[in-house]
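dude i think i finally got it to work??
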Amino acid sequence: MRKSSFPYFQAALIMNIIELNHYPVKSMRGVAINVADFSPIGLRHDREWLIAQANGAFITARKLPILLHFHTETHAGSLKMIAPDGDSLSVYSKDYTEIAPVQVWQDTFTAYSGDTAADEWLSAKLGQAVRLFWLGERSTRLLPPDTPLSFADGAPFLLTNAASLADLNAILGEHFDMNRFRANVVLDGAAAWAEEKWRRIRIGTTEFELFKPCKRCVLTTIDVHTLEKHPQQQPLAYLAKHRGAVFGMNMRTRQSGVLRVGDSIEIIE
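look at this
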């Protein structure tokens, strides 16, 4: 048995994954999965498609909350998008061959455009001119020094803790779902907010570095079911005042492998 360097009372906890989620199109609804292949860029199919303005500048549900009501399905080489009205459209990565510049936050890099019919369909559904971009087989965007990055905000993986959310809900006297926080990996079995003190964890045989707390934005104030914003801007208002706006931890790894719901988590550092 490996010996953890973390204090014994934390190492004795039994922690495991209770949710895995990927988000094939940035800002569209997440997809819960039981098993996920992963590599240094993140979970397979996570944030590999992007909706942007004509010039490639990214668009998210912060400005267009209706994106949260679009469902997606991924298949080999294809993506199916299902609009809130039930209309659907499938696109194929093989049709995305035109190299084009895109921008996510301060990062400008190249991705692929191609299916103008998809652009027109999305523009009609969203009420403004947009384009759909595919990341490609390899990303040209890097998280320094050398970690490939998808269309995610700033990290390949986002980890959250069920106990932290339970504590937050108890403090605020309201019920906020974890889906507001758009995590890839949700764990159970740890003390509330303990994840903010970890630097390295092991899931299966893979080590992950928790390299940065995740600072939250206005998206957490939007009810994903009704699309209504919280009148007191919760839970962001509390997090900003008392926790530096942090909820969850950004992670990265140099390895590839498979994650499964139920996998145990070990604190290394």
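Confidence is low (pLDDT under 50) at residues 1-11.
im so relieved honestly
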